[in-house]
Amino acid sequence: MSSGCPPQSPAVAKSEVAVEGECPLLAATFAYWDNILGPRVRHIWVPKGDQSMFLSDGEVTFLANHTLNGEILRSAECGAVDVKFFVLAEKGVIIVSLIFDGELKGDKNTCALSIILPQTELAFYLPLHTICVERLKHIIRKGRIWMQKGNNIISILSVEIVLIMKLLASMKTHSVPEDVDIKDTVLNDDDIGDSCHGDFLHTAISSHLQTCGCSVVIGSNPEKVNKIVRTLCLFLTPAERKCSRLCRADSSFKYDTGLFVQGLLKDSMGSFALPFRQVLYSPYPTTHIDVDINTVQQMPPCHEHTFNQRRYMRSELNALWKTDSEEDIPPETVIHTDETTLDLNLFQDVPHKDTLVKSFIDEVFMLKPGLSLRSTYLAQFLLLLHRKALTLLKYIEDETQKGKKPFKSLRSLKTDLDLRDEGDLNIVMAFAEKLRAGLHSFVFGKPFYTSMQERDALMSF
């Protein structure tokens, strides 16, 4: 592959990132368009250690230049980030490149932040593509501000690039398989009380479904944590399971934004630190499950979560704009949780009970374990929820003339679709949200309602 590659400029800086395990990422690059010299690579990040496929610096530069060729006439709105996906079969690599405008040395330039993977990792990477892109988009927002202030963007980008490398390395070894065997979950127990208390299991699954299938499972015993992780993954699609991660027995992973279900271990003192910013930046609200003390808490519903997320994002970018130096960047807020106090601020007790999950759990344990009956019954339950979500969407479309009128008949919807219990409504709404993003905000109106205000409003119907 080295033949025909341009020589690497000695001015290009290179960082080696220490990653535990084998990182499927070959390299990450930051390049820009120089009006005199054309595409130029500013920085290269590579994982440290032996790799099955190695790219020389010249090859990395060639691939990075490839992503900027033809971008000189790029026309996009100010602040826009274009995502381009290249599959170069002749080189045996895939390149995910984010193209954006930024200021370098006082001039506006077209820039590209790219990650390079072997083509053999295409099936592994595709389910994680949205997670990586959304995280890189936000770090680019911060980087553009840093560039406009005349500071070095590399320090800002390096933080997220390192985290992306560690995420991909952890998913390579500890991701949940596409097909989860029910024998490895709580639903295979002879009795509901074998592995965990029945009410705890009911609340955990119900809240998991109410938060669009996003949960973080925390505990001290890795086997117990992973069993709950696999159980919750039974209620996800195969693609969503590939975006879920088991906990590591020897040492704990850190929380990663964007994963659907992830298992995390507490430290020797029985506590775990959740990063406030990363939890808030998850695409959906999250359920917090502690298997040591059997507690379940959840974040506010989707429309509140989106509002809080965007408000925090704006405040974060404003704070960065007012910062004069890298040392003045405020530290990331951390949420501390231990076995005695569960004051997560962002989380609240599960406010609503349901009948859908309660009936499912009661009935599934009536079936004989060890056979395929429980798996079949689970598939029918998920199909039922999916059809209820489609029916709810069609109902709202008809009532609002496909969004032309505001939705005003929540009480009628709950009666007509037999969703009188708030928990049942929340579960079906969460399924529908993933089918039609923004449904919560459309139905519940003003997104800045707090959960208490929303409950008061619902009580008035």
Automatic annotation (TrEMBL):
InterPro entries in the record: C9orf72 (IPR027819)
One GO process term, biological-process aspect: endocytosis
A single MF term (Gene Ontology): guanyl-nucleotide exchange factor activity
Superkingdom of the organism of origin: Eukaryota
GO annotations of cellular component type: autophagosome; endosome
Pfam families: C9orf72-like
Name of the molecule in the record: CI072 protein
Protein source organism: Salarias fasciatus
